[in-house]
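User: I'm putting together a small comparison set for a docking exercise, and I want a reference complex before I start. The sequence is below, and the ligand is zinc ion. Could you produce the 3D structure with the ligand included, as structure tokens?
Assistant: Of course. I'll restate your input first, then give the structure tokens for the complex.
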Amino acid sequence: MTRLKIRSNKIKCKKCGDIIESKEGWNFKKCKCGAVAVDGGHDYLRRVGAEDDYIELSDYKEIEPYEDAERVEKAIKLIKSLISNHGWMQGSIMEGSKKIKIDKNGIEALKMILAELGEEDE
Ligand SMILES: [Zn+2]
């Protein structure tokens, strides 16, 4: 199942020309003439009224759930290699090649992040 990453949730009413936007939180908004309404904030796109009565103006993209999981996995791998390299690493895990320097406190912080994620620290 795809999920939506919503940057803006808005439509324009064809009858009254009103542009209505549902902001963060489940923010229900009706147009001036009451023909259409938006809801859902940045969580989901809910429309009230006939599809022919509004123009979609939302900015969103569909994301596959695994994209998130993959990103988290990459982050965990990166954190683990930072810990095992004791501060220096030539990263090939993330895009491009980056050299990152972290100190002792940084390593402790990374260990805390792993613990938070429920990952065993190797
Ligand atoms: Zn209207």
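Residues 65-116 form one domain. The CA atoms of residues 68 and 119 lie 17 Å apart.
User: Thanks, that's exactly what I needed.
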